[in-house]
Design a protein that fits this description.
The complex is a heterodimer.
Chain A (H helix, E strand, L loop, with lengths): L2 E4 L6 H6 L3 E4 L9 H5 L5 H12 L5 E5 L3 H13 L4 E4 L8 H20 L7 H19 L7 H12 L18 E7 L4 H8 L1 H4 L1 E7 L20 H10 L11 H14 L3 E5 L5 H4 L2 H8 L3 E4 L8 H18 L2 H5 L1
Chain B lengths: L6 E2 L1 H13 L13 H4 L10 E2 L2 H11 L1 H10 L3 E6 L5 H5 L5 E4 L7 H4 L6 H7 L10 H9 L8 E7 L3 H12 L5 E5 L11 E3 L5 E3 H22 L5 H27 L7 H13 L4 H21 L9 E6 L6 H8 L2 E7 L15 H10 L7 H15 L3 E6 L6 H16 L3 E5 L8 H18 L3
Parallel strand pairs in B: 3-4, 3-5, 5-6, 9-10, 9-11, 11-12
Antiparallel strand pairs in B: 1-2, 7-8
Classes of the chains: A alpha/beta, B alpha/beta.
The structure holds iron/sulfur cluster.
Chain lengths: 336, 460
């Protein structure tokens, strides 16, 4: 049981692995969550389900959460106040334009390293670190442009494996359904298990995902690690690949999210956006209008609560109507 | 014979005002009867009960004339800085400069309450896609869009990082609407690691020296930004003077809080105390006048304390109040239910604690900013609440939920658990929307139940 769970793309799994732990990308089930997620009004259901998953888990040794949003910050406090779970709260700066913000990110990686050693891990030698980094870098390279794939689920699983044990994937040979259906981009926060079932239904509904820009998808894959580490410091290399490169909604300012999105939507020919955001997630919620304006694409706001039994069917119904409008070019009329 | 303090409705106040004027009341330029603010749309005044002292009159007039004061400052050539979120630090820097006036546009939080939603700000925010799942700070978005309230600032400075998602998300929208923002980072305050250098912060928290240094560097960036903006060097000497003035305000508030929350009979009601505390964050846009207003309140409280008279019955149950209320009326409801406020944490305790004056100014300001209870763990916040509850002899805790606020979903549970365990006092969590009228009976019942629980548990 040497798994260390995490769910932020800014936490480098190779850093966890270098210290002798197995990183595990957490994707909780929302429907099973009962206590936190349903009894605390206003709590993001993802954060609630995640904290519950950690508390109930039998195969995690520790968890790394970040300060990117309030629910996670307070979720970490719940773990600290109510359990003796080893919890590392990573101070992830929102700003990025000053050098100081990047330095803070580096300091937090070093502090994470000390936490992992105190937990019983080992201090890696430079050679071990290089080897581990190279493995993860190659694995990421194998999925970065692995598109089209058979299904969104397949892509999500591939990326989760890369973010976990750093397993590289051969480019999928079969690409069934890859060219049928209305091309859509998936954008937004992290997915819960149940979201995958909804994405599975897309081909039958006449849609397909051509860009996974959700929290666990392609958008948040680290850039390639630099061949030469600045100052021969692994932490600086991680900063370049993660902190300096990943566009996200919580960053201030967050213009890079839009800069990342626009050319990719065009290149992949996306005709609409499925925005997956969790109820009470202010960060994505507030940006919906801006995303609409910046991309010029029709968008459907999927804020389903899987704790409600009818949520999946309702979401599928809404997506079906959305696709119908896109196919019929009736979007503007429908919105107007 | 000493007149007993009492609370007045708006009509009663206006009659009292005439009597005070006839008796020779002297007022500052923004003085006048409170009723005139209703003509400006501040309809909530009609539902409030306000303290009957001339000091309270001046406080209300000072508060309700802020938009005029800002417009006037701009007419007179002052430059306006809109500060977002840090609640108490950047204004100290801005007021160290000449001809710069700083205020918190986040203060629009209260406009829907004070104007009983006749302002339409929440409807504008709805239209912009920022609905009631956000806290009342979304009114700020409406105020920027309508430009019908405070003047649009010449510069916006926002702290982000370990701050609430509501404000961060809405500030980003503001920038997207064409209001550029200078962002600075406030990290999540963490406990120092074993062997790591630590700094004691005002208010009792401890932070790693490295975090204080980080914030100091961030505030250096803010300092440069402000100096460029004002075309004036923001020297250490100026900052030190600015800190000195801010501390005078904080000390006045300290005296006031001490009397109001610990005297056997509360010399001032909870509502006026809430407003007085709010003055600490940006001095209601006039630092000198702020001191004068507070000075008069201190005098009034002292006079009443000496006379042994209070604005609330001495047997009232002593309640510690956590979080500001979106509807000011809730403070009246507490007192009607038999409670009184004995200690508060309105999200800005760090703006009440004096800033260190024995270290370089940016170091002192960094310590103050990092002492913000909202940037650390809610467990730290709970510990501060416990300390203050003990100090003021509070018998119960009211956790006032702010509708839609991202921190409110879990903080109440965590803080409530700690306070119950440590102090063994009753805790109640209530939600206070911008207008409580529809749910006032429920709020009253819950507060009455709390009061009864405490009374039942009192030893005879
Ligand atoms: S009330 Fe809470 S959520 Fe709203 S702006 Fe203030 S701190 Fe943020």
């Amino acid at each position: 049981m040497n798994n260390v769970g995490y769910c932020s793309p800014f936490v480098p799994p190779e850093w966890i692995a270098a210290f002798g732990w197995s990183p595990r990308w957490l994707r909780p089930r929302a429907a099973g969550a009962r206590d936190l997620a349903t009894t605390h009004r206003g709590l993001c259901p993802f954060a609630g389900a995640l904290v519950e998953q950690v508390i109930a888990s039998e195969d995690l040794h520790a968890v790394v959460l970040t300060t990117a949003c309030d629910p996670m910050r307070y979720g970490a406090a719940v773990l600290q106040a109510r359990t003796d779970w080893p919890t590392f709260l990573f101070n992830l700066p929102s700003t990025w334009q000053s050098n100081a913000a990047g330095r803070l990110y580096c300091d937090e990686l070093r502090r994470l390293g000390r936490f992992l050693v105190d937990l019983g891990g080992r201090s890696p030698s430079p050679d071990e670190t290089r080897a581990t980094f190279a493995r993860y870098d190659a694995a990421r390279g194998s999925v970065r442009d692995a598109w089209p794939v058979q299904s969104s689920r397949q892509y999500a699983e591939m990326v989760a494996a890369v973010r976990g044990e750093g397993r590289a994937h051969p480019r999928p040979s079969t690409v069934e359904n890859a060219t049928d259906g209305v091309p859509l981009a998936l954008l937004g926060g992290p997915l819960v298990e149940e979201d995958l079932a909804i994405l599975d239904a897309l081909p039958q509904l006449g849609g397909r995902i051509v860009l996974d820009a959700s929290e666990g998808g392609q958008r948040t894959l680290a850039a390639a690690l630099p061949a030469e580490w600045p100052g021969d410091d692994p932490v600086e290399a991680l900063r370049r690949a993660y902190f300096d490169a990943i566009p996200d909604v919580f960053r201030r300012p967050n213009d890079r999210l839009f800069e990342w999105l626009r050319p990719r939507l065009a290149a992949r020919g996306a005709r609409g956006i499925l925005l997956r955001r969790h109820v009470f997630c202010d960060l994505w919620h507030a940006e919906i209008e801006r995303i609409r304006q910046a991309t010029g694409l029709p968008l459907i706001d999927l804020d389903m609560l899987h704790a409600d039994a009818g949520a999946p069917a309702q979401a599928i119904g809404r997506i079906e109507a959305f696709l119908e409008m896109l196919r019929g070019g009736r979007w503007l009329v429908a919105r107007g | 014979m000493t007149e007993l303090p009492c609370k007045l409705t708006l009509d009663q106040w206006d009659r009292r005002y005439d009597a005070l004027v006839a008796g020779g009341l002297r007022e500052p330029s923004y003085g006048g009867p409170l009723g005139r603010h209703v003509d400006d749309g501040n309809l909530r005044l009609c539902k409030l009960q306000m303290d009957d002292s001339p000091a309270a009159l001046r406080l209300w007039n000072f508060l309700l004339s802020e938009e005029d004061r800002l417009a006037d400052a701009r007419r007179r050539g002052a430059r306006l800085v809109g500060v977002l979120k840090d609640l108490g630090t950047v204004p100290v820097m801005a007021y160290s400069l000449d001809r710069v006036v700083a205020f918190y546009p986040d203060g629009a939080w209260w406009i829907p309450c004070v104007m009983e939603q006749s302002d339409g700000l929440l409807a504008i925010a709805d239209r912009l896609g920022v609905d009631e799942s956000f806290c009342p700070v979304r009114a700020m978005l409406g105020a920027f869009e309508s430009q019908a309230h405070f003047p649009i600032p010449d510069l916006l400075i926002a702290s982000v990082g370990a701050t609430c998602d509501d404000l961060s998300a809405i500030a980003q929208r503001l920038e997207g609407m064409g209001h550029p923002i200078f962002w600075w980072e406030i990290p999540h305050r963490r406990p120092p690691e074993a062997g790591e250098d630590a700094v004691h912060l005002p208010g009792g928290c401890v932070a790693p020296a490295a975090q204080v240094a980080f914030v100091r560097d961030e505030l250096e960036r803010v300092r440069q930004c402000l100096a460029r903006f004002a075309g004036q060097e923001l020297t250490d000497a100026r900052l030190a003077e600015g800190i000195g003035r801010a501390n005078r305000v904080r000390r006045l508030l300290g005296q006031l809080r001490q009397m109001a929350y610990s005297a056997p009979a509360a010399p001032l009601p909870a509502l006026e105390m809430l407003i007085a505390e709010m003055l600490a964050i940006h001095f209601c846009s006039d630092q000198n006048e702020c001191m004068a207003v507070l000075g008069e309140l201190v005098e009034e409280a002292r006079r009443r304390e000496r006379a042994g008279v209070g604005a609330v019955a001495p047997e009232a149950v002593r309640v510690f109040w956590l979080n500001p209320v979106a509807d000011l009326r809730a403070m009246n409801v507490l007192e009607d239910a038999g409670g009184r406020v004995c200690g508060t944490e309105y999200l800005f305790s760090h703006a009440l604690d004096p800033i260190d004056e024995d270290v370089p100014p940016t170091e002192a300001l960094a310590r103050s900013a990092l002492a913000d209870l909202m940037v650390g763990s809610p467990i730290d916040r709970a510990e501060r609440v416990c300390r203050d509850m003990r100090a003021f002899g509070a018998e119960a805790l009211v956790i006032s939920r702010i509708p839609g606020a991202s921190h409110c979903s879990l903080e109440g549970a965590i803080i409530g658990e700690v306070v119950r365990q440590r102090l063994g006092v009753p805790v109640v969590e209530v939600e206070v929307p911008p207008l409580t009228d529809a749910m006032e009976p429920t709020l009253r019942t819950r507060l009455e139940a709390l009061v009864e629980t405490v009374r039942d548990g009192r030893t005879p």
